[in-house]
Each structure stands twice: as structure tokens, then as C-alpha cells.
Amino acid sequence: MASLLDLAFVRSQFPAFREPSLSGQAFFDNAGGSYACKAVIDHLDQYYRETKLQPYHLHPAAQKAGAQMDLAHERLASYLNVDVKDVHLGPSTSQNTYVLAQAFGKLLKAGDEIIVTNQDHEANIGVWRALASRGVVIKEWQVDAQTGSLNPDDLEQLFTEHTKLLAFTHCSNVVADINPVADICARAKVAGVVTLVDGVSFAGHGLPDVGALGADIYLFSLYKAYGTHLGVMVIRDDMADKLGNQAHYFNQAYRQKWFVPAGPDHAQIAASRGVLDYFDALHDHHFDATDSVAEKAQRVRNLLHDAEQILLAKLLNFVEQHPKLTLLGGTDPTKRAATVSIIPKGQTVQAFAQKLVDQGIICGAGHFYAVRLLEAMGVDTETGVVRLSFVHYTSEEEMDQLIHALDVALN
């Protein structure tokens, strides 16, 4: 199957591919942060040059700055299929989750239960576990030790009348297993349980239709989805009302400040709309015009997904067949994201990763904050895994470069 994606057009939208210092370097560390698209960089530059002052004040430049921030919220909401008042932008997903945990901690009482997984990034585990000091009961939804996957049927035994919150990931940042979010959220809703979904490792592969997923709270990081270093929170209106204002008391009238105690990063918020500018350009280059944002967003999701699937199948096939590599997670490319974690046989993870780096492969090695998952799967967390992650702008030539580098590093 050939991809419809015009890769030359895509890469023309990312200045990194024209950066001399990165020439010849194949970028396979996207799960740690993607390249920023040109529209984001341009908006950030413009903001700092033209409107670097307090937004929303009386001066025209201040009004322009505020309008740019408002537009970013509106455009994110439209692509995510949620109401604009449900979109909140904070400094990072880790910080946003911490603030949410403090808010929940004020509502919960001793004996209330929170379910976490051991598949998640620690940012979506540790803050909830810390509430045990207040008498909250923490229950763990455990992965299969062989595959690293979660079984939704296990929730039947975990839910009780005392269960108040289920925090889980849309997609593992190590085994890349994509969870059936809509099904899980539907089960939780029947049980009267609030759902909080960490979408950080999923969103870079196509911003999800959060409205269709049914989560009460959905989180992801824009800097892993071609944007600025911000964390996006979608918090349903009724859920936000229950949690209440976590910022200065006099900001009660400003809903978008409630869950950002330190205040918004004006420039980065204004520039974040560049991600949607890029997706719009991507759509218009490949498809006929449409007035439906929902249709446009779905077409872009499919375009990104199909482009990644071809390369993912090629990489998984190489890893699965090589006798000196151990793959974490499943081998079916349709059930996982384009993140592949491996352990070499006969050499350390760090030495192996260095051999790849020496051949122009940008990759990472370690536990990637998924310590509990690696422990459950019997992996040494001191050394961790080599993680190879890519997105739609990765070329077939770069994948061939990676596979050749893997082959050389294993011999």
C-alpha cells in the first residue's frame, strides 16, 4: 500500500529538515518531542516582535496578543471536537496532572479509591499514588507481563462503589500499545467513575477526536505534536465546576486560568495555533476543500496514520526477525503507535544506542519514566530500552538508514 502523503510538501513545513547541523541525521526520538512546524515558529517569532506585552489590555498590540491567544484555544477546540471553554493550556502535562491531583485531593475522602495502571508514564501514576497519604486507596490495573498490554475486562473486578477516578494512558510510551479509550471510558461511566486519559504518546500521531472518546479529562503535550512546550488539558465543563478554581481567587471569572496557577505563557499559547495552521495546509494540499472541521481533522488523522503504518510494519518486521533483538510489545502495526522499544542481546542498551547515534540516528535509551511498566515486564530499569520513535514526516530513506544502522550495530 502506498501512502497518499506528499512527503516533500510535509518536510517543507519543518525548518529542521533544512538545518545544516542536522543534515544526514535521521530523527527517531519523536516520542521525546517532535520537530516544530514552521507556522508555530513564525507565530512565536511574530509574537515576541510585535506583541510581547500583557495581553487583553487597552493598547491595540495588547488586544492583538489576546486575540491570538483566544484563537489558539478556539482552533484547538475545533480540531479536538470539544467546546472551547473545555480547553486549558498549562506549562506541561506533568505539571498539569499535578495541579489536577491537588484539586481532586480536596474532593476525595479517606476510603475513596483511585485506579492507576502500571503501563503509564510516571506523571500519570505518581501524583495519584501520593494521595494515599490522605487516606485515598490506590488500586493498580496491571499489564500483562509478557506483552505490556492492559485488559479492559480486568476493570470489572477493580471497580467498586468507592471508586472515584480511573487514570490511564491512551498509548504507552514504551510498548506503544493503543488502548480502546472510548470503550474504557464507557465502562467507567456506567460504574460512575471519572476518567482521566494521558494522550501524550498518542497525539503526535494525529490529534484525537476527544469529543468521541468520552473521557472526562484528556491530556497531551503540544511539543510532541509539532508545537510549543505546553500541555493541553481538555476538562469537561461539569468536571471543571466540581474541581473548582485552582488559581488566584480573583481569577474565578476566567475559566481558562483555573488550572494554571502560575498563569498562562502568552507567547507559546498564541503560537500554538500554528499546529492547526499546519494541519490545515496539510489537508488543503491533499484533499478537496470542506467546511467541516470534523471531516478535515479526520482526513488529516488518517493521512498521518497511513503514512506511519507503512514504515512501522517495515521496522517491526526487521526487529521481530532479528535473533539479537528483543521487542517490547506486540508485533501488529495496526494495534500500536510508531514507537518501537528494543533490547539488544550481548551488549548494553547504552552501548548499542551510542552505535546508532554514531551512524546518524537520533534516538534515546533509558526507562523513559515508565519504570513501573519495565519492572512489570522484567526489564532492568537502570539500563532500560532503546526507543525508536517516528511520525509522518519520517522518510523511507531514513527508515532504511535506521535498519542499516541497527544491522551494523548488532554485528
Explain how this protein is built.
This protein is α/β, with parallel strands linked by helices. The protein folds into two domains: 7-35 and 307-410, Aspartate Aminotransferase, domain 1 (Alpha-Beta Complex), CATH 3.90.1150; 43-276, Type I PLP-dependent aspartate aminotransferase-like (Major domain) (Aspartate Aminotransferase, domain 2, 3-Layer(aba) Sandwich), CATH 3.40.640. Helices cover 41% and strands 14% of the residues. It has 16 helices and 13 strands. The chain has helices spanning 7-12, 38-50, 60-80, 93-107, 126-129, 155-158, 181-190, 200-203, 210-213, 237-243, 266-271, 273-286, 293-321, 349-358, 371-376, 396-410, and strands at residues 26-27, 87-90, 113-117, 137-141, 163-169, 194-198, 217-221, 231-235, 325-328, 339-344, 361-362, 364-366, 385-389. It has a seven-stranded mixed sheet with strand order 2-8-7-6-5-3-4, sandwiched between helices. α2 packs antiparallel against α12. The two termini are 32 Å apart.
